[in-house]
């Protein structure tokens, strides 16, 4: 009978290894029992997550982690991750949630689950208030700065009318300088870059005119955790309604949450 | 070597390259003509001009010769708008080329002027020429002839240096190469083509400058 017991043990181990994080019964129960939620956050991607003056992580994602922990009534344990290892941390059960400016795509959806979107992440055309354009067709005859080879360069080149003057700069700094010195009327760039310009309080304030490509950020969690998923989704929905998520967006991105979110 | 060259993109992107070549040629044409003219004026001031003007020109020459061309370009393009002077990227590039070559060529030309034997100035004076007439009719052409090879090299250096104007989105040959590289990811081929074109342009430019020298300098009869 010993051999049979060994066989069962080996099977159980294989199952545990094979299914990885799925093996944990109820993540929400574990978090409540532990009194701590472990959250993977970025530390090299401002304004979502960076190291503050006191060496503690700060940013949009950290505020989001604190908000969720507060609503769950547990303490938060921030785990710094890189964009390459954030999903493996979740799969090997080192963290309960990944709040790390994570975009959703079919490949990722095969291995982890996603909550509702919690942060805007998009490319668009940004310009001061007096620049009139609400869609690509209205860019005709205007001068737009863009970083050469970036996604927004490729997309804008496709959708802009033929007589749009597109100035392509070497990097984001060139694009920002061209905008601030008035060499271009508008820039096509990401909302994070626009937020970085806004943070410097320039005389020309880049406001979103229209979206080029939208890929908001989602919170990642292990598969088969309906209780945790539902709970976090509830917290996100409530935070959108009561304005606390908008306050985080204003604080870190300098702009209101877009209506689509 | 296991690299497979792929030049198919040339058919799609050659208008960009042609436009880039045209802009590079335009930059060096304006740069060389206006830059050498500015250099002659500055060299005259420093060698023979009014004493009160000498420090001004010296300051300009030292400022330009001791700062990077790229920074001069950024100063004109990104900096001057703050003072209310908004220039397009081509205007900024042309001005930067002229200002840069003007400073370097003035030092080369000054060397030519200072190598003129004193007797030639005295000869001019004894023929009742004013100092400016002496400079114009006696000194200038032989001075230029003395330093023409060095000046030609400097013009070629500035032409090759014009590659950095792509940094302010002026669509020269380097911009075309970078643009094609970012669209096709064929970096080796894009820079291969641009290298060949620059080499060709530099050789052509030397020929043209040699021709100009042949036309403007007196040729001694063969002995």
What does this protein structure show overall?
The complex is a heterodimer of chains A (261) and B (223). With 261 residues, chain A is an alpha/beta fold. Chain A folds into 2 domains: 157 residues, 3-Layer(aba) Sandwich (D-Maltodextrin-Binding Protein, domain 2), CATH 3.40.190.10; 93 residues, Periplasmic binding protein-like II (D-Maltodextrin-Binding Protein, domain 2), CATH 3.40.190. Helices cover 40% and strands 26% of the residues of chain A. Chain A has 10 helices and 13 strands. In chain A, the strands form 3 sheets. Chain A has a 5-stranded mixed beta sheet with strand order 5-1-6-13-7. A 5-stranded mixed beta sheet of chain A has the order 10-9-11-8-12. The N and C termini of chain A lie far apart (59 Å). Chain B is an all-alpha fold and 223 residues long. Chain B has one domain: MetI-like (MetI-like fold, Orthogonal Bundle). Chain B is built from 8 helices and no strands. In chain B, helix 4 crosses helix 6. The longest helix of chain B is centred in the N-terminal third of the chain and has 40 residues. The relative contact order of chain B is 0.16. The mean pLDDT of chain B is 92. Classes of the chains: A alpha/beta (261), B mainly alpha (223). At the A-B interface, strand 10 and helix 7 of A face helix 3 and helix 7 of B.
Features:
heterodimer, A: 261 residues, alpha/beta, D-Maltodextrin-Binding Protein, domain 2, 2 domains, five-stranded mixed β-sheet, 10 helices, elongated, B: 223 residues, mainly alpha, MetI-like fold
SSE succession of chain B: HHHHHHHH
| Overall geometric form of chain B | elongated
Shape of chain A: elongated
Beta-strand content bin of chain A: 25-35%
User: Which regions of chain B have little confidence, pLDDT < 50, spanning 5+ residues?
Assistant: none
**Structural class label of chain B:** mainly alpha
Helicity range of the residues of chain B? over 70%
Radius of gyration over C-alpha positions of chain B, nearest whole angstrom: 21 Å
How far apart, in Å, are the first and last alpha carbons of chain A? Answer: 59 Å
Low-confidence stretches of chain A: 18-23
């Amino acid at each position: 009978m010993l051999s049979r017991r060994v066989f069962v043990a080996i099977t159980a181990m294989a199952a545990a290894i094979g299914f990885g994080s799925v093996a944990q019964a109820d993540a929400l129960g574990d978090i409540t029992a532990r009194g701590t939620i472990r959250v993977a956050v970025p530390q090299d991607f401002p304004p979502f997550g960076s190291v503050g003056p006191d060496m503690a992580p700060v940013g949009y994602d950290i505020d989001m982690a604190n908000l969720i922990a507060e609503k769950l009534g547990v303490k938060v344990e921030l785990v710094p991750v890189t964009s390459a290892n954030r999903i493996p941390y979740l799969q090997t059960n080192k963290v309960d949630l990944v709040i790390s400016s994570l975009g959703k795509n079919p490949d990722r959806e095969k291995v982890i689950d996603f909550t509702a979107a919690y942060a805007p992440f998009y490319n668009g055309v940004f310009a001061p208030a007096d620049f009139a354009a609400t869609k690509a067709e209205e860019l005709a005859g205007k001068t737009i700065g863009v970083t050469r080879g970036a996604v927004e360069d490729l997309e804008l080149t496709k959708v802009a009318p033929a007589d749009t003057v597109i100035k392509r700069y070497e990097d984001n700094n060139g694009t920002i300088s061209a905008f601030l010195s008035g060499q271009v009327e508008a820039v096509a760039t990401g909302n994070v870059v626009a937020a970085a310009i806004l943070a410097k309080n320039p005389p020309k304030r880049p406001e979103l005119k229209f979206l080029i490509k939208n890929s908001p950020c989602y919170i990642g969690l292990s598969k088969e955790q309906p209780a945790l998923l539902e709970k976090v989704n509830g917290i996100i929905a409530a935070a959108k309604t009561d304005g606390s998520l908008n306050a985080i967006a204003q604080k870190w991105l300098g702009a209101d949450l877009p209506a689509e979110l | 070597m296991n690299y497979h060259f792929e030049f198919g993109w040339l058919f799609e992107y050659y208008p960009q390259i042609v436009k880039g070549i045209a802009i590079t040629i335009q930059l060096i044409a304006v740069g060389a003509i206006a830059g050498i003219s500015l250099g002659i004026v500055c060299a005259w001031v420093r060698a023979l001009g009014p004493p009160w003007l000498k420090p001004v020109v010296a300051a300009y020459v030292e400022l330009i010769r001791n700062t990077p061309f790229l920074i001069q370009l950024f100063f004109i393009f990104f900096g001057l708008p703050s003072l209310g002077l908004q220039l397009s990227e081509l205007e900024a590039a042309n001005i930067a080329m002229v200002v840069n070559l003007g400073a370097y060529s003035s030092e080369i030309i000054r060397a030519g002027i200072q190598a003129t034997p004193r007797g030639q100035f005295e000869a001019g004076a004894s023929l009742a020429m004013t100092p400016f007439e002496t400079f114009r009719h006696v000194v200038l052409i032989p001075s230029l002839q003395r330093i023409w090879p060095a000046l030609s090299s400097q013009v070629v250096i500035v032409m090759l240096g014009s590659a950095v104007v792509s940094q302010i989105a002026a669509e020269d040959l380097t911009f075309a190469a970078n643009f094609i590289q970012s669209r096709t990811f064929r970096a080796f081929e894009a820079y291969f083509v641009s290298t060949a074109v620059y080499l060709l342009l530099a050789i052509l430019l030397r020929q043209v400058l040699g021709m100009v020298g042949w036309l403007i300098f007196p040729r001694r009869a063969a002995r």
